[in-house]
Amino acid sequence: MKWRKFLRTGQNRLLARLEPTLKKIPAVNRRIETQYETLMADLEPTLKPYRDTFATYDRLPVDGRSHDDILSEIQALKKLEEARWRDGFVSGAVYHGQDEHIHFLNQVYALHSQSNPLHADLWPSLAKFEAEIVAMTAHMLGAGQTRPGHGVDEEICGTVSSGGTESILLAMKTYRDWARDKKGITRPEMIVPVTAHAAFDKAAQYFNIKLVRIPVDHNYRADWTAVREAITRNSIVIVGSAPSFPHGAIDPIEEMSTLALKYGVGFHTDACLGGFVLPWAKKLGYAVPPFDFRLPGVTSMSADTHKYGYAAKGTSVVLYRGAELRRYQYFTATDWPGGLYFSPTFAGSRPGALSAACWAAMVSLGEEGYLEATRRVLETAVTIREGIAAMPELRLLGHSLFVHAFTSDELDIYRVLDHMTRQQWSLNGLHHPPCIHLCVTLRHTQPGVAERFLTDLQTAVDAVKSQPQAEGGMAPVYGLAATLPLRGVVGELLKRYLDTLYKV
Ligand SMILES: *Cc1c(COP(=O)(O)O)cnc(C)c1O
After folding, report:
1. CB 153 near ligand 1, within 6 Å
2. What is the chain's mean pLDDT, rounded?
């Protein structure tokens, strides 16, 4: 058995290394090309379902259409797409989604749809909203409460960004520039658990930072002992997730950030997912290890207001320990003919309406609102977790509060995923190892939703058990994409998928 596994991985490595050469052989290239085209042709109708039913534009209409006409068309599209997320068939994606809350956010958005924080002179209200979003988030995440006896408790500050990815990209750029200025590091390295969000890979690519990956333990938490070995003179930042997107596992932030402090390296807690859950979970008595600015080694954090902060999509918060660090995020241009130019984040002009709606979401919920929302989400998550645990064919991965990843040792888990999709569910398919997850939101706390999930999951498991042969669906594609040694082929397929999205 071990031999076969060895041979297989040996073969995979060999194939992966031969990939560039293989692609240069015309016959091989042609075969792959045909495969790409068949696969994309199969996929295209599901990505472009409206071609036959709605007008399509590949140029401007000569005469503009009436508002009523356009509104009714957009309403028709909305109706087709709304039920799945509203009725709780979707993992993550829409975190609140209650009618009254949405209506309220829409009203605030409408009041500010013309505003732009780039013009602070025209809309000082936006600077107020954003400063308060940052301050409220910082307070929730331990600002001013760093454990005593660990030097100065510098002010926790930050900025509003467009989402978790931007918050992470900004923080990584900040560490790169900080380390170059303060330590003369010109070949920066970031130490990142394999389970950290892909946005860290994106940061490494965009900003030319070497990514040093840390493995996870049997509970899918970062192996902090590997962090020590990974630290070099070029290390700029260590990353931990609270919790991680794939398995909902909270990394050992205390141990990792203590090492960061000891070696004078930055530490970023990615609380994009958990930032607006864990503080309340702790108050509710759930076991939540320290993860925020109470730990003296934590020097930055990301927390998504557009997830469990229950704001509209398009806002997140990035926080820093000390205003000096935040400075490395800012951009200034002093000699541009367009005048003195400066901006805190990547964008120039930004939607002020989203910051206004985010502020409104936060102050309308208040501590009591977040506490109650968290109580409901976590109670539902316990029901779902216990239901999955009771199915002998399935195995939960690690310990999670509200993102439950599970696999099967006897069934193809991707076929279970296919059967869930056929019952309207939209769950996340993950790999390394193959598993699927459900990120529990307020949508799942509606009466009967958790029970329906478990019933449908049992049906899916039974169906896969009773049909040993695969029957189409995405399972073979997932299986192949997860194990194919030719990662270039998989990457190319993803790029073609994106090309397809932009086809009219
Ligand atoms: C969602 C998420 C991100 C990225 O956030 P986006 O808002 O999708 O850009 C980063 N980290 C974790 C843990 C997340 O769950």
Report:
1. no
2. 94
